[in-house]
Amino acid sequence: AGEGNEPVPGHGTGPPAPERVLFPPTFSVSEIKNKQRRHFMFLRWKQQQRKEKLALKKKRKKEREALGDKAPPKAVPKTIENQRVYDETTVDPNDEEVAFDEATDEFAPYFNRQTVPKILITTSDRPRGRTVRFCEQLATVIPNSHVYYRRGLALKRIIPQCIARDFTDLIVINEDRKIPNGLVLSHLPDGPTAHFRMSSVRLRKEIKRKGKEPTEHVPELILNNFTTRLGHSIGRMFAALFPHDPQFIGRQVATFHNQRDYIFFRFHRYIFKSEKKVGIQELGPRFTLKLRSLQKGTFDSKFGEYEWIHKRREMDTSRRKFHL
């Protein structure tokens, strides 16, 4: 036996400790030809990266606790959001020109409480079951909305009938291969009309840990990150769908959250657990919208005048450029 506490090789009482895997700085998983071995080594490499990242995070936390008030401020991580290219059409809340435009635009009667929202929800020609259920659930989210399933009736004929019956907005849900994939929102009687691409539709039964069915209370409305003139117009279109005075006793919230020009819709119920904690339940449905065009006036596919059209090859040249 050797002296000291170091064990002699071959005379230990237990199995040798596993060696720590250290990859060289120039290690590349792609150089491994065997597919299974390559996948296994990639998982081990990712595991090592996570351990090193966690150890560095703990080390920095201890250093900050030791320095106390003298600790340097935390570094702000770089994201696509905070590196966004400045848009000259960003709205200033104190801009007199913006205030004048809002006082005279098509939504002014709604914001001046001269009109009460009344919405017609319809579909493409001969909708399938999933689209029908989505429209029914959307009608339970938007107060004073009515569902009409059209069969062969053109939108140009529907719009005059809506205006005659005092509808303020028309929502059309389009589908492709039995899946809802588009939404047309037209403000009546003078427009504008927005065309959205719809994706990630989830009905109530498809949402995990969902709450009970929504009540008939008027929900609160949250609009996030609609900062440009175009985004401001879209936000006002969504606001005009809901009555001005929400019924807070219902504790229901409809949210339109804009992030990188994708508009995420969520419908929640909240409850105050204590003075500092709030619990939320998602009620559904949920979906994501991407603006494709904004048209002046009501829907007119042939002779309509467009305010804005999304042109991918011209507008999507930078990942840090957003329009809403």
Keywords summarizing the entry:
324 residues, alpha+beta, Rossmann fold, 2 domains, 11-stranded mixed β-sheet, globular, disordered N terminus, IMP4/RPF1, rRNA processing, ribosome biogenesis, rRNA primary transcript binding, Brix
Question: How does this structure look, described?
Answer:
By secondary structure, this protein is an alpha+beta fold. The protein folds into 2 domains: 29-67; 89-316, 3-Layer(aba) Sandwich (Rossmann fold). 26% of the residues lie in helices and 24% in strands. It contains 7 helices and 11 strands. The radius of gyration is 28 Å and the shape is globular. It is found in: Nucleus, Nucleolus. This is Ribosome production factor 1. InterPro entries: Brix (IPR007109), IMP4/RPF1 (IPR044281).
Name the CATH superfamily assignment of the largest domain: Brix domain
Low-confidence stretches: 1-5
Helix content: 25-40%
Structural class, from helix and strand content?
A: alpha+beta
Profile the largest sheet. Answer: 11 strands, mixed
CATH C-level class of the largest domain: Alpha Beta
Q: Hey, roughly how much beta strand do the residues contain?
A: 15-25%
- What is the overall pLDDT average? 86
H/E topology pattern: HHHEHEHEEEEHEEEEEH
Instruction: Please indicate the count of domains.
Output: 2
Query: Gyration radius, to the nearest Å?
Result: 28 Å
Could you tell me how far the N terminus lies from the C terminus, measured between alpha carbons in angstroms? Answer: 75 Å
Shape: globular
* Beta strand count: 11
CATH topology descriptor of the largest domain:
Rossmann fold
Tally of separate helices: 7
CATH architecture classification of the largest domain: 3-Layer(aba) Sandwich
